[in-house]
Design a protein that fits this description.
By secondary structure, this protein is an alpha+beta fold. The protein has a single domain, classed as Imidazole glycerol phosphate dehydratase, domain 1 (Ribosomal Protein S5, domain 2). The protein is about 35% helix and about 30% strand. The protein has four helices and ten strands. The strands form three sheets. A four-stranded mixed sheet has the order 1-2-4-3. Strands 5-6-10-7 form a four-stranded mixed sheet. A hairpin with a 2-residue loop joins strand 5 and strand 6. The longest helix is centred in the last third of the chain and has 20 residues. The protein starts with a strand and ends in a 15-residue tail after the last helix. GO terms for molecular function: imidazoleglycerol-phosphate dehydratase activity. Its main location: cytoplasm. It is an enzyme of class 4 (lyase). Pathway: Amino-acid biosynthesis; L-histidine biosynthesis; L-histidine from 5-phospho-alpha-D-ribose 1-diphosphate: step 6/9. Pfam families: IGPD (PF00475).
Amino acid sequence: MRKAKIERNTKETQIALSWDMDGQGICKGTCGIGFLDHMLQALCVHGGFDIQLSMRGDLEVDCHHSAEDLGIVLGQAFAKALGEKGGIRRYGTACIPMDEALSFCSLDISGRAFLVYEASYENERIGTLDCCMIKEFFRAFAFQAGITLHMKVLYGENDHHKAEALFKAFAHALREAVTETGRGVLSSKGVLE
């Protein structure tokens, strides 16, 4: 069973999170940032993941610590739930439209953390989420999960649409990459690290 629970408590955030890799697409709980909650919901629905979250953050400061720390904990839970990475497709790619916007994601569950992120937004924030924190969220996830992650908003006008298409592309690529194949580790080295 590919499941994990992670707790992380700092002076800035207190997070308890569980991740079921083979769930029903159910997201419960809140990080306290409305738009990021909406994106977590999209991640679960489009990836077929179940995530349960209990979180408090210093949102009176701003959204930075909460968004980044959530990415850290999600990445840790993903890595723990996936385990040794054997018997999975390893790679995933998706290009997702949302109205006028089109976003792309390609990833490798390689054990080597890397992020390439190309996206520009017209506004400083979407709801109460600073647009600059979307990149920080994905960087935190990629480095804790040990994945190589390439993401790009190809075009669009509405910031909400661009970001949501990006999260949905990430969800579909992640689902493809973790799909079980019944084979061994997909690496000529015999290990993913």
